Amino acid sequence: MSSSLCAQEKSNTARQNLALVGGRIYPDPFSKPISDGIVLIENGKITAVGAKGRVHVPPGFDTVDCTGKTIVAGFWNSHVHFTEPKWEGAASLPATQLNTQLQQMLTRYGFTSVVDTGSDLPNTVAIRKRIQSGDVIGPRILTAGFPLYPHDGIPYYVTESVPSALVKQLPQPATPEEAVRAVDEDVAQGADIIKLFVVSIVTRDGKHTTLPMSLPIVQAATAEAHRKGKLVFAHPSTNEGVELVLQGNVDVLAHTTEEAVGWTPAIVNRLKAANVSLIPTLTLFSGEDGPDANHQGILQEVKSYSDAGGQILFGTDIGFITDYRLLTREYELLGRAGLNYRQVLATLTTTPAKRLGFAATAGRITTGQDADLAVLDSDPADDITAFSRIKMTLRQGHIIYRAEGQ
């Protein structure tokens, strides 16, 4: 079949009955895989899953031969950004342009759901609306919109990369009352989560230094977000940031801390007891040539949290990192941190679906779930980097990405 966007647009608008036939199916990360299996899809939902001989393809179904491939639930990327200049004016950009950009950044890597942890809120909401309407082909988008920063504490890399007019809009609450208002404004404009920079790295007198958010402001913002039913993500930067997360009742660490020396068993136990999820973003800290000696401490942070049974969500900071191909390294790095392929699959599927409130419809390959699927070229049980080699991505039963030659 053709891999052109035109063909994908047609598949996105047509409600078709589809059968994926012959692949190795992982119904969820920890169940026994189904060899030579079949997935039936009707009206965007999975209606049957099983081995050939147990599941039969009804008349009128289009079939996709998945022999030699592996079928898993569609991936979640829980840390992305729509902040590159190419996203500006999304409400009026040509649909074909947005389709291409979403494919290049997300869907070609199997992502059917993403969490934007900071961007121009009206612009990201416009992208989401166009996807939801069927005008544009892309993943489910949850967004934080405008993050909250410490008072007079916009990070130096934000001021260097974001247009000055937008920087002026970024909330920097000086009081708990201002923090509550900022949360309310984000939610009113369509934010699904709230993001806090509990520690910013700022420039003072020509040098980079850390600036923490005051604990009362963290607590006020988090309490208001929770009152409105929203999870709170935090950028910690330092051990002080992790402490603010714990005392402030934050839900998700958007990164590991870069001060691995202070990541103690006591901290791990406190984070797990508080049900804090961790997004490692290991590639962000690994350097262009791969992990160095300092990076080993960050890998150990992730390993210690995984070993303790803490929730880990896959995320890459894509959008801030603009070399998209580089981010396929994340799977190898998670493996170096001690996660096996089943644990990595959980970070991509069931764990984020549950944490973000979509477990009833996403994260598994089972009857009644949305047909959000990724077809891999091989089995990650044999090679963990197979997660990065996507042959096909489906969102609610529509083929939204197909590799050349498939």
Structure in a nutshell:
By secondary structure, this protein is an alpha/beta fold. It has 13 helices and 17 strands.
Give a verbal description of the structure.
With 406 residues, the protein is an alpha/beta fold. It is built from 13 helices and 17 strands. Strand 13 (252-253), helix 9 (265-273) and strand 14 (277-278) form a beta-alpha-beta unit. Helix 6 (176-188) runs parallel beside helix 7 (215-227). The longest helix has 13 residues, at 121-133. Residues 1-14 have low confidence and may be disordered.
Into which percent range does the helicity of residues fall?
A: 25-40%
**What is the residue-averaged pLDDT?**
92
Structure class:
alpha/beta
Rg over CA atoms, rounded to whole Å, is: 21 Å
Number of helices: 13
Please report which band the strand proportion falls in: under 5%, 5-15%, 15-25%, 25-35%, 35-45% or over 45%. Answer: 15-25%
Cα distance spanning the termini: 6 Å
Order of helices and strands: HEEEEEEHEHEHHHEEEHEHEHEHHHHEEE
